[in-house]
Specification:
The chain is α/β, with parallel strands linked by helices. Helices cover about 40% and strands about 20% of the residues. The protein contains 15 helices and 14 strands. A six-stranded parallel sheet has the order 7-6-8-9-13-14, with helices on both faces. A five-stranded parallel sheet has the order 2-1-3-4-5, sandwiched between helices. Strands 10-12-11 form a three-stranded antiparallel sheet. Helix 1 crosses helix 7 (about 155-180). The protein is elongated and about 65 Å long. It starts with a strand and ends with a helix.
């Protein structure tokens, strides 16, 4: 029988969790109820008590209560909950996880869910599931459902939302317990980054890699995509990385929408994963429908009704060149950087709205200086990033660095 783990603070949400447990059982799945509360007594009996969760975090409830600090308690219970979920998954006792709550329980439960592998069903019903949910999702396949009303009692709205959540996780758990979808064979897996302005070149690289025997996972350089790539590289799930699109680096530097955090471009190098990197989309930073006042004097381009981009300046390009070079120098695995001398995106080729030889030159020179004397290969091609020949050249070099499918298989 598929088993769903229900995880939450049973001192504040007991009736809701009791109702969910009954609903899940009626749907034909087994339930393990895990308590992550720390204050009042649980209002429904758990299968795994809070004391066990605290011990898994290397502490105990008395210590957490003595601190008198909610932040300390939430952090500790998140660590303990992650350890409990990992143990249950390793033992084959977890086919899905469901949690409901507000800010505190969302922080605990989503942190724990992110410790599970990609593919394990994870569903969080939260009053916080609107606005910026990146801190909750991270780089994992975590599903968020907005609760509409706060999780504070059973009423005509909350019951419908909770019923949908229970039915959804039950269905996912049944599918997960039945086995994985048919795999694409034992081909080594390559992670690649792409945006709309680098699609043609990455598609050429992807097709070449597929012909060479790899399975290619493409991540949209939208913030979440970069975080997912980093998480999979760090978790040993990728045999190689083709990081052709660094839009998240430039967006993060200018404070735009869709940065992937300060550790972007580090996980593959730290893990020793073979990687080929390019400078795709460093000619722009991404924002929402409007850009900040401080940047409105720039060349603002409307990409679509939800996304506008601004051109990066020569000074910003030089700074990004130094940043990219420093991160690649720190890599412990074979690394190559491909420089597209004729354009970083569809917008910066000759005649494009972002064609700026001065800014590009600042970027290229900073990269050359930053990589001088390092073990990082530097390949400068007289092509733009979307030239299919450029994409194929990156793919061929990645294949060589990875040693071919026979050696690269993960």
């Amino acid at each position: 029988m598929p088993q769903v783990v229900l995880m939450g603070t049973l001192d504040t949400k007991g009736p809701e969790y009791g109702w969910l447990r009954d609903r899940l059982r009626a749907r034909g799945v087994s339930v393990l109820l895990v308590d992550t509360g720390t204050l009042d007594a649980p209002r429904v009996a758990p299968d795994i008590p809070r004391e066990e969760v605290a011990r898994a975090a290397g502490t105990d409830l008395a210590t957490l209560r003595a601190h008198g600090d909610r932040g300390v308690a939430v952090t500790a219970m998140a660590h303990g909950a992650a350890a409990v979920l990992a143990r249950l998954h390793a033992a084959g006792r977890l086919d899905g996880v469901l949690s409901v709550g507000g800010s505190g329980n969302s922080a605990i439960s989503t942190s724990a869910m992110r410790a599970l592998p990609v593919g394990v069903p994870k569903l969080m019903v939260s009053s916080m599931a609107c606005g910026d949910v990146a801190p909750y999702v991270g780089g994992k396949d975590l599903t968020l459902m907005y609760s509409v009303v706060d999780i504070a009692g059973l009423n005509r709205v909350s019951l419908r939302v909770l019923a949908n959540a229970a039915d959804a996780i039950a269905g996912m758990a049944v599918g997960y317990a039945a086995g994985r979808p048919a795999p694409a064979g034992d081909r080594p897996v390559v992670g690649a980054t792409m945006a709309g302005v680098t699609t043609r070149g990455v598609d050429a690289a992807r097709e070449r890699l597929a012909g060479l025997g790899y399975e290619v996972l493409v991540f949209h350089a939208s913030g979440a995509g970069g975080r997912s790539l980093e998480a999979m590289a760090a978790g040993g799930l990728l045999a190689a990385v083709l990081d052709a699109t660094l839009l998240e680096v430039s967006t993060g530097r200018l404070g735009g929408v869709g940065g992937a955090g300060p550790e972007r471009l580090e996980a593959a190098g730290r893990a020793g994963v073979p990687q080929v990197v390019s400078l795709g989309a460093l000619d722009m930073a991404k924002f929402g429908p409007a850009v900040p006042e401080r940047l409105r004097h720039r060349h603002v381009h409307v990409h679509n009704p939800s996304v506008t981009v601004v051109r990066t300046s020569p000074a910003e390009c030089a700074a990004m060149g130094r940043e990219v070079a420093a991160k690649l120098r720190a890599a412990t695995g074979p690394t190559a950087l491909f420089v597209p001398l004729r354009g970083l995106s569809t917008l910066s080729v000759a005649g494009g709205v972002y064609h700026d030889p001065e800014a590009d030159a600042a970027l290229f020179e900073a990269v050359r200086a930053g990589l001088a004397g390092s073990a990082v290969e530097l390949h400068e091609l007289d092509a733009d990033v979307n030239d299919p020949a450029f994409g194929r050249a990156m793919a061929d070099r990645l294949h060589a660095l990875a040693g071919g499918p026979a050696r690269a298989a993960c």
